[in-house]
Amino acid sequence: MTEPTREPGLRKAPQQARSRARVEAILAAADRLLAREGVEALTTRRIAADAAVPVGTLYQFFDDRDAVLAAVARQHMETHSAAMRSILRDARDARWYDLVNLVFDRYVELYRKNPGYLAIRTGRYLSRELLQLDEDNNAMVAAHLRRILVSREHLADSTALAVACRAGVHASEALLQLAFRDHPDGDRTILAEARRIQHLYLADIVADPRYRDPARPRHPD
C-alpha cells in the first residue's frame, strides 16, 4: 500500500479521512484566530479549542504553533501561486501595463480576502522555506514581465533588464505590504501611489535607450 505523502511542516501525513478533516479544522481555526486577533494571540491550546479537537491531536500533526502558522501560510501561498500562473498564462500577449494591473489587483485581492495570511506576512513569520516560495513567485512574475517587454516593446533581453524587472516586482510588493500594514483593506492612497510608481518605473525602462534592442526599432501599436 502506498504511504500517504506528508505535506511540508506536518509531523506525519493524515492517513484517514477523519485525520485529514482534523488537520483541515486545525488550519481553518488558526486562520480564523489570526484574522481576528493576530499572531501574538495565537496558542496551540486556542487553536485546538477553536477547532474542537484535543490539543494532543494537534501535536500529533504539528510540532508547535509556528508549524501551524507555516502550514496556513503555505496553503495561501500555493493558492496564490496557482492563480498567478493562470493570470500569466492568460496575459501572455498583454501589454506590460495591463500585466502590472492584473498582478497588482491579484495581490490586493489576496491580502483583502485572507487576513490570516496577511497577519503572518506583516508579522514576518514566514520560514526560510516559505520565503523561498515567495521569491520563486516573484521571479515568475518578473520573468513574464521581461518576456513581454522584449516581445512587445522590443527591448534587449539582457541581464540589466532582468534585474530591472526583478527590482520592480519587489518594490511593488513592498509598497503593497506598507498599504496593508495598518489597514485591513489596504490604505487606498498608498495603493494608488504603488500602482502609479510601478507604471512610471516601467514606462521609464521602456523609454530608456540603454534597454533598447538596436536590431529591433520600436514601432507604436
Short description:
The chain is mainly alpha-helical. Helices cover 71% and strands 0% of the residues. It folds into two domains: 17-65, Homeodomain-like (Arc Repressor Mutant, subunit A, Orthogonal Bundle); 73-210, Tetracycline Repressor, domain 2 (Orthogonal Bundle), CATH 1.10.357.10.
| Main CATH class of the largest domain | Mainly Alpha
- The number of helices is 9
> What's the overall average pLDDT, rounded?
87
Outline, from the CA principal axes? Answer: elongated
Q: Strand tally, please?
A: 0
What is the CATH superfamily label of the largest domain?
Answer: Tetracycline Repressor, domain 2
Task: Quote the distance from N terminus to C terminus.
Answer: 59 Å
CATH architecture of the largest domain: Orthogonal Bundle
Report the radius of gyration as a whole number of Å: 21 Å
Assembly type:
single chain
Number of domains: 2
Q: Which blocks of ≥5 consecutive residues have pLDDT under 50? A: 1-6
Instruction: Estimate the helix proportion, in percent.
Output: over 70%
Structural account:
With 221 residues, the chain is mainly α. The chain has two domains: 17-65, Homeodomain-like (Arc Repressor Mutant, subunit A, Orthogonal Bundle); 73-210, Tetracycline Repressor, domain 2 (Orthogonal Bundle). Helix content is 71%, strand content 0%. It is built from nine helices and no strands. The protein has helices at residues 17-37, 44-51, 55-61, 65-90, 96-113, 115-122, 128-153, 159-180, 188-207. Helix 1 (17-37) crosses helix 4 (65-90). The longest helix is centred in the middle third of the chain and has 26 residues, at 65-90. The chain is elongated, with a radius of gyration of 21 Å. The N and C termini lie far apart (59 Å). Residues 1-6 have low confidence and may be disordered.
